[in-house]
Automatic annotation (TrEMBL):
Protein's recorded name: Glycosyltransferase
Gene3D superfamilies assigned to the protein according to its UniProt record, in alphabetical order: Glycogen Phosphorylase B
InterPro entries, sorted: UDP_glucos_trans, UDP_glycos_trans_CS
Species annotation: Solanum tuberosum
PANTHER family on file: GLUCOSYL/GLUCURONOSYL TRANSFERASES, GLYCOSYLTRANSFERASE
Family under the similarity heading: Belongs to the UDP-glycosyltransferase family.
CDD domains: GT1_Gtf-like
Superkingdom to which the source organism belongs: Eukaryota
Coiled coil spans: none
Source taxonomy: Eukaryota, Viridiplantae, Streptophyta, Embryophyta, Tracheophyta
Keyword tags: Glycosyltransferase, Transferase
EC id: 2.4.1.-
Length: 461
């Protein structure tokens, strides 16, 4: 990017939260804005900023550390998660305010992860525009909203009540055991997540990494209350047209990918013959679940590529990699976009994090859903019951909620070879087209991004 263009560009600060699943869409959205001539500063914690600096070289995007989580301790520092949130708020809000006030290039707008409770206070204090970015689906927001009203003792905004929305699963506390809500106890993480709605109310826009045709009815419903703007999937449309190769510029990785060998390995496999297994960054599978997965993969004749994160490796059965060499590959992390774009991948066993869900849809890869916590349960429900692009491998109904190897195996076979699998592949191919259409030039999400920019600068369009 030429220097002159950067000097003239509008300046938006993007405030990114901790966590792979939060940073990825914020960074992807930043790139999208940068590609439209906007100067972006990504404000985040020091550890995030350091990793992102090394993986990106866009001249329109710079990184600013507003909280030193390296020396002051991150989520594992004093006071655990709550201690981290308090320190991030104290340092982050002071440093971010100073940064915006002092910057030679006036900041037009703060786009903030809706998860960061203090962000909207800064936009109010400084009198700049604010956009809350919700990194999960619209349906998840709609599902959390009644809980927010209950926990924060708020009167629900007048809107049609939650269960009457066609298409939205009637998920209630018993369906969300990980929330701990059925016992009436609300752990700090839940209070924190639900607190996002305070930001919704104060924001000029509420951005969603989703697209209109994916969640049509829910989006329509939410628009009655908030200024909801769908801008996803945040993947660039050219990604969906071709195979993604040697991409060390695009993403952010909490672990170093050891995927160069896995791309070569995939190259030698037939189209649609490999099962990709990954549970994202946050879920930490218990030893029993890893054993069941290992049994399902070992007993079948299916090729697999399995991401077992460094802290889960010790839970793998002894000699598993040796025993399955030739038909399977275990890696500690990979470039998931490259993998999902590869023709050899026929099915994705996923925890159904929202990013993984959108990525699978965008690349047209059917899912075997094994949701673990929170919004993953809602996403899995949508994948199977609403969009019919995957199957849920049901967990045992005991406290541990492990999914048995037989059930995992049954779902893989059904998706790869069964009648239902054929229907699923057809449906996901259609959904992939809709995703691509939304982010292509003048597609619904692309138009929404242009409108967002033009509201900041009427001369833009
Ligand atoms: C979690 C939630 O489940 C998610 O829904 C929420 O919005 C944020 O927190 P996470 O567990 O990380 O996120 O899952 P997911 O949302 O799927 O994000 C994982 C990201 O990591 C994806 O973008 C995926 O492409 C990437 N990834 C994963 C890799 O690049 N390599 C891997 O090996 C595994």
């Amino acid at each position: 990017m030429e220097q002159g263009r950067v000097e003239k560009a509008h300046h938006i600060v993007v405030l990114a939260d901790q966590g792979q699943g939060h940073i990825n869409p914020m960074l992807q959205f930043s790139k999208r804005l940068a590609s439209k001539g906007i100067k972006i500063t990504v404000a985040t914690t020091l550890s995030n900023a350091k990793s992102m600096k090394t993986t990106l070289s866009y001249s329109m995007i710079t990184f600013e550390s507003i909280y030193d989580d390296c020396s002051q301790g991150g989520v594992v520092g004093p006071g655990g998660f709550k201690g981290f949130l308090d320190r991030f708020q104290a340092s982050g809000s002071t440093n971010l305010t100073r940064f915006i006030l002092d910057h030679e290039h006036p900041v037009k707008c703060l786009v903030y992860d809706a998860n960061i409770p203090w962000a909207s206070k800064i936009t109010t204090q400084l009198g700049i525009a604010g956009a809350a970015f919700f990194t999960q689906s619209c349906a998840t927001a709609a599902t959390y909203y009644p809980m927010y009203c209950e926990v924060y003792e708020k009167t629900p905004l007048s809107m049609p009540s939650f269960p009457v929305i066609t298409g939205l699963p009637k998920l209630r506390f018993p369906n969300l055991p990980s929330l701990g809500c059925s016992t009436g106890r609300y752990p700090p993480i839940i209070i924190h997540i639900l607190g996002q709605f305070d930001n919704f109310g104060k924001a000029d826009w509420v951005l969603f990494n989703s697209f209109d045709k994916l969640e049509e009815e829910v989006v329509e419903w939410m628009k009655k209350v908030w200024n909801v703007v769908t801008i996803g999937p945040t993947l660039p449309s050219f990604y969906l047209d071709k195979r993604v190769e040697n991409d060390n510029e695009y993403g952010f990785n909490i672990h170093k990918p050891n995927s160069s060998n896995c791309m070569e390995w995939l190259d030698s496999k037939k189209t649609g013959s490999v099962v990709y297994v990954s549970f994202g960054s946050a879920a930490n599978l218990c030893a029993e679940q890893i054993t069941e997965l290992a049994d399902a993969l070992r007993q079948s004749n299916i090729m697999f590529l399995w991401v077992v994160k460094p802290d889960e490796q010790s839970k793998l059965p002894i000699d598993f990699s040796k025993e399955t060499s030739g038909k399977g590959l275990v890696v500690t992390w990979c470039s998931q976009l490259e993998v999902l774009a590869h023709h050899a991948i026929g099915c994705f066993i996923s925890h159904c994090g929202w990013n993984s869900t959108l990525e699978a849809i965008s690349f047209g890869v059917p899912i075997v859903a094994m949701p673990q916590i929170l919004d993953q349960i809602i996403n899995a429900h949508f994948l199977e019951k609403v969009w019919s692009v995957g199957l849920i491998a049901k967990a045992n109904e005991d406290e541990k909620g492990v999914t048995a190897s037989e059930e995992i195996y049954r779902c893989i076979r059904e998706v790869l070879e069964g009648e239902r699998g054929r229907e699923i592949r057809k449906n996901i191919t259609s959904l992939k087209e809709l995703a691509k259409e939304a982010i292509d030039t003048s597609g619904s999400s692309d138009k929404h991004i242009d409108e967002f920019i033009s509201q900041l600068d009427p001369a833009y369009l």
